[in-house]
Amino acid sequence: MKISYKWLKQFINTNKTPEELSLILTNIGLEVESLEEVQSVPGGLNGLVIGYVKECAQHPNADRLKVTKVDVGLGEDLQIVCGANNVAAGQKVVVATVNTTIYPTTGEPFKISKSKIRGEVSEGMICAEDEIGLGHDHAGIIELEADAEIGLAVSSYYKLEDDFVFEIGLTPNRADAASHLGVARDLAAYLNLEITMPDISSFKVENQELVIPVEIQDQDACRRYSSVCISGITVKESPDWLKDKLNAIGIRPINNVVDVTNFVLHELGQPLHAFDADAIAGQKVIVKKCAEGTIFTTLDDVERKLSSDDLMICNANEPMCIAGVFGGKSSGVKDTSTKIFLESAWFDAVSVRKTSKRHGLKTDASFRFERGTDPEMTVIALKRAALLIQEIAGGYISSSISDIYPLPAKPFEVEISFNNVSRLIGKEISKEEIHATLIGLGIKIVAQDQSGMKLEVPAFKVDVTREVDIIEEILRIHGYNNIEIPSQIRASLNPSQKPDKEVLQNQCADLLTSNGFFEILSNSLTKLAYSAQPDLAVKILNPLSSDLDVMRQNLLFSGLEAISYNQNRRNSDLKLYEFGKVYSLENETYKENQRLSVFLTGTMHAEHWASKSNLAGFYNIKSIVDLIVNRLNIKGLSSFEASNPDFSSGISYRKGEKVLVDFGTVSKKALKKLDINAEVFYADFDWDFIVKSVRNNKITFTEVSKFPAVRRDLSMLLNKDITFEHLKQIALKTDKSLLKEVNVFDVYLGDKLPEGKKSYALSFVIQDDEKTLTDKQIEAFMQKLIINFEKQAGAEIRK
C-alpha cells in the first residue's frame, strides 16, 4: 500500500521528515518497506530556467529555423537555434541549458548538448510543453508572463513540490490503516497530535430534480447503503493537483469524476462508485443477488457468469455493478455523462471476499471491503466526494442523501486490567499514556478506576475485540523497541524427553536419501475420483477445478502421480518418499494426520555390465520399512496381513492395537487410475503415531563389560509352525541376565526331514557382567535351554 507524505500532512501537522516518519511507522506496526521520492513532473524540471529572447533572426542556412540570443541570467547571452514558429524577440521562455536532461511527455529522456545546427552554434534549447513533460502541446514554445524573473528555476515558477511515498506492508489485520486517514490516526496517537478531517460543512442539497430510490433485498450482504445524485456535471480531465496526488501513489487518472472516487477511497478508506444516472433503467437502484448463470459484462469488457451468491447493484431491469468489487461496462461514467448517482456502502466482508475470488477480480475496493471498512464513514465520504465533484466538474446536489442503515453497527465493549497490561507487555506503562493512546486511536473510554478501564472500540477496528487486542494496540503505539530486555530470565525447565519433530523427520529423511531415495512434495488438494471413501473426504467449497476438489485422504495417489509423470518420460526406476498431511471428515469433525510414504518401482540399481539389474520386490520395501523402524528404535511390534484396500498384498506392523505402518504391493485398481503398468511397492507410515512411540523411548547407558562373552550353538528339529520369535522368548525366559543375543543362522526344509518338520540352527551369546563364566556354568545354562526347548517347543536336539 502506498501512502503520500504530503497527503499525510493534510491530516496531521508535523515537521517530521519522511525518513523519521518511516522509522516511526515501522516501530508502531506499519512496516515501511521502501521510501521513494516522486515528482509530479518527470525530472522535476531540474536544469530548466527562465530566459529572455533579446534577438531573433532568420537562420542563414535554413528557412524553418531561427537564431536567437537569450539572456538566462548568467551575464552572457546564449545563442540558441530554435525551430518553433512562435519564437520572437521580447518573449520570456523556458530554456534547457547545456547538460540538462529533459523528460518529454512521450519518448525517452535526453541530454542537451552544445552543437552546430546547419552551421550555427546552439547552446541550449527553448522548450515546448510536451518537450519537458508539462503537457501534450507541441504547437510552439511556452510563452511565459512578462513579469517572469530571468534566470529563475522553472520548477520554482510552476511551484512544483516533490513528494515522498511510503510503501507499507499492510498486514491483513490492519484494515483500519488502509488509507491516509488510518495511517495518520496511528501517527497522531504516537506523536500526540490532533487529526484534521476534510471540511464537509459546505455540503448542501440544492434541488430535488434527480431522486433515485434504493431498495436493499439482501440486508445480510449489504449492511448500509448511502447515495446521492448530482446533475449538471462536465466530465473532463482532472486538475493537476488531483492527478499529482493519484500519480504519486500509482493510480492512473481517468476523468474528474472517477478520479474523485479513487481519491476519497485512498484518503478515507471508503470505496465509492459513480453510475451514469441516465443508464439507470427505471430510475431505481436495487441491491440484490441475481439468478445463477446471469451474464454480466464488466468494465474490462469481459463477459462473466454470475453466481447466485454474488451481490449485485441493479437497476429495474438488469445488474449494473458487482457490489464492492467491479463496475459494469454500460453503467459507468462516460465523457458524455451529465448526471451521476454516487454510491457509498458497507458490504459484508465475507460476501465480497468470495465474489472477488470467484471471478478472479482484485480491486482497491474489494481489498478494503473484504478486510472490513468503517460503517460510520459512508455518509462522510459521500459528502466529501460530492463537494470535490462540484468543485472540479460543476453541477448541483440534486437529491437528499439516501442512507439505508437497518441495523447500525455497535462498538465492541471491552474491559482491560492495568495489571494485565503490565504483565503481557512486560513493562509498567503509565495510566496517563494508556489513556492518551486509546483516545488517539479513536477508542472511547466509558469508565475508569484504579484497576482498569471499560472501553468501546469503534467498528472500523475490526480486529480489536478482546483485552489482548487492546493491549497490543497500546504496545504498538508505545513502540516494540521501547520494551527493555530484562537482565534476568525466569524459566521453568521441563525434564521430560520429547523428541523434536523436525529433528526426527530430518533423521528419517537423511536415512532414506542416503539409501538412494528422492523426496517429493505434492499438493494437498486432489480429485475426488481417487477416494475410496468419498463420504469421509474433506470437500473444497470453491474448488479451482474438478481435479482439485478435495483434500487428500492418503499420500498414495500423490506418489503415483509423480511415478506416472516420470514413467511417461522414460524414467521408470524410482525410489521416492514424502512427508505430508492427510485429511478426513469423521463424525462431522475434521481431522488431519501426518504421514510418511515410501515408493519403489522399476529396478533397484542402474544397469551395469558387471552386475544384473534386479526388479524391486516386496522384500525390498520390507527392508526399507525395517531400516526405518530400527533407526527410530521402535520396539514391541507385531505383524499382521494388511487389510488396506490399496494393497493387493501386504503386511501391517502394529504396536498394541494401532497400525504403525502398512506396506506391500499397490493394487492394480489403484495403478489403473494413473495408467501405470509396472509394479509399485508402497509403505504408508503413521508419522504422528511414530512420534508418539519414539517419545516413550528411554535412553540408557551401560558400561562396557570387562568380562568375555561366550557363543554356543544348537541345532534342533521342530514342527513347521514353530517360529523363531517363539524360540527367542523361551531362551530369554531361561536366564535373561546371562543371555545377551539369540540369532538364527541356518534353516533347512527338505525331503530328508520328516513330514511337517524343519531344522533350525541357533546361536546364543552368553555373558556375566560381574565375573568370567566357567565351563560348568555355561554347560548348566545350555542344559536348561535344551530342556525348555524340548518341553515348550517340542524340539528334538540334533547332536
For the largest beta-sheet, the strand count, sense and barrel status come to:
7 strands, mixed
Give the spatial strand order of the biggest sheet: 29-32-33-37-36-35-34
Gap between N and C termini, in Å? 89 Å
Total helical segments: 19
Instruction: Give me the count of strands.
Output: 41
What class would the helix/strand composition place it in? alpha+beta
The whole-angstrom Rg is 41 Å
Instruction: Kindly estimate the percentage of residues that lie in beta strands according to DSSP.
Output: 25-35%
Poorly predicted segments: none
Amount of helix: 10-25%
Overall pLDDT metric: 90
Overall geometry = elongated
Write the layout of secondary structure elements.
Layout lengths: L1 E3 H4 L9 H10 L4 E7 L9 E11 L7 E6 L6 E5 L9 E6 L3 E2 L7 E2 L3 E3 L2 E3 L1 E3 L16 E2 L9 H4 L5 E6 L11 H12 L22 E3 L5 E10 L8 H9 L7 H13 L3 E5 L8 E5 L5 E3 L5 E3 L5 E4 L4 E4 L3 E2 L11 E9 L1 H11 L4 H6 L8 H16 L2 E2 L4 E3 L7 E6 H8 L5 H10 L3 E5 L3 E6 L9 H12 L22 H14 L3 E2 L5 E2 L23 E2 L4 H12 L6 E13 L2 E13 L16 H14 L6 E4 L5 E9 L2 E9 L1 H5 L7 E7 H9 L14 E10 L4 H11 L4 E10 L8 E10 L8 H19 L2 E3 L1
Parallel strand pairs: 14-17, 29-32
Antiparallel strand pairs: 1-13, 2-13, 3-4, 3-6, 4-5, 6-11, 6-12, 7-8, 9-10, 15-23, 15-24, 15-25, 16-23, 17-20, 18-19, 20-21, 21-22, 26-28, 27-28, 30-31, 32-33, 33-37, 34-35, 35-36, 36-37, 38-40, 38-41, 39-40
